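Quick start: read one record
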Amino acid sequence: MSDKEKIDFEDLFKEENDDVVKQQELETKNLNNHHRSIIAIAIYLFVSIFVAAILLFVFDKSPYTKVIRTPDEIVLIELVNNTDLIAVIKKDEFSKYERYHTYLKKYDYDDDYYLVLNAGKIAGKTSITFFIEQEIEEIIQKNEFFLIEDSKLVKENLDLYFQNTIAEWKEKNPIKLLLTDEVKPDFIGDDLWDYNLEKKLVIVDFSEELSEFALSSINLILYIIMFAFLFLTMFDMIKHDVKNFINLKSKGWISVGVGLVIFYAFSIAASVVQSFVGLIFKIDPQTSVNQATIELALRSNGIYFTLISAILFGPIVEELVFRKSIFSMIKNKWVAIIVSSLLFG
């Protein structure tokens, strides 16, 4: 064998050996990433369940993290969060809670009381109806009545409801009447007052609960703990991804830009379609309830912690767990996309 042939053979053997080593290193790296991903998901679950329970217990024992809500405030909060509820509340009590007025619609019942609805229930309408079950000649019938007609309360129909026990909205959702335990209005019939089947009549009492500041603090603490442990666990994976992102070529950056444009375009289109569907089919706008919840949260004394969680730590933690970990564990790209979408959206 000539020297040239010997060198070529050695080079070929070296190249093959290098390929084997690289393949082994890649398999080891993938296995390590797989293990890190499992640990990351375990960390997320442990913190979400056990650490959260400990924090809730600790905060619950502190007198400085509690807020006492009156029955009237609880009634208004329930109304803000549900378009199927109605409430009868004293006018002077209603006036104390201006922060909720934007999301509610009130109608004069008499000199002392308002009938109050979620503003989304009447949005875009001047009239709404409801159904009452009545026994006529020993036959149970459902008859339709106006609750609001031409933007005015039809008091006689409301009184008819107060003297009955079963009522539904036009959409066949049961009407739930909210009252406080402090007062029993004279115009509420005894039959309805005693009626509690499926909780269609809800009597509200005082409530002591964690304040918005306490809840936002707990949420932020949980995200910081998750972020710290996930960052340490997945550091090598994160460093690799950051390096690849920085080294993107022009085509890669163009793809990122196009993807962002498509994402925002579809988001805007979906919002427009949802609005049109709601107007055409007169669907009660659940978005108004969601928006009210968000706006009230933004006005709370825990707003800064909430923003830090929602804008900084929350997205990073959820991307690391529900995207990075799942894509590292599941080799089939399409299966990973489906699983990630089902869990994370």
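The radius of gyration is 30 Å.
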